[in-house]
Amino acid sequence: MCRILTYLFKKCSCLLINIISKLTENLLIRALWNYRLIRVYFIILTLSFTVLIYNQSNTNVISTSLLEMLTVDNKVIQCRFPQLSLNINTLTFNIPDTDQPICQSWFYPIIIENYHARLVVPYLNCTAIFYVGEGDKKYEKIPVQLYFNVNILLISDYFTVRCKDPSSKAIYPSLPYASIHYNPNTRDRLANIKKNEDDFNVLVLGFDSVSRLQFERMLPKSFSYITKQLDGLVLK
Hints:
about 35% helix; membrane; transmembrane helix; 3 domains; alpha+beta
């Protein structure tokens, strides 16, 4: 349809240009100095008018075609969230069985509480290595020596602890930890917030690199706890 309209407009524009040129040549004297200028003016005006009509017609045709494609039974089709079950058989991917991590529950050299870490095993020499940085930038490793029953302020959310037994010279594997360190900037910002009777307490959890259905498949207990125990709302 668009090709036919383009061909017809080209033919009509050429015919109109020839007619105007002939009329201009017959009505005006060739010897006049503005003959060529008037002719060019009419050609430019004709082309502009033709392009304007073509664009308007083409736009209407495309809009009508898109509307016909997106309309079924007088209902406009819009983007909708797919209604898929968790384990639908028509999906072409398989969910492999992953090995669950084995937690070393027999070894707890430190206790974390109130933004501090404290060594609770007296015969060990332990060092905490804090990873300090922001975003995707390179993180700096800061080692801090731990002492028995002495609180050490956490300086980052992520750190590892490596311990050694001086008597047996045994070296324990590095243990990863994740917590929340004290951030004075956050505390200052919260202190300046105006308090009123309609304060909201909202916890937002974001899970990157995983879809909603995949999260439900791989972590059903966590999903059930968030939605049922915490009365959470899943954003789609």
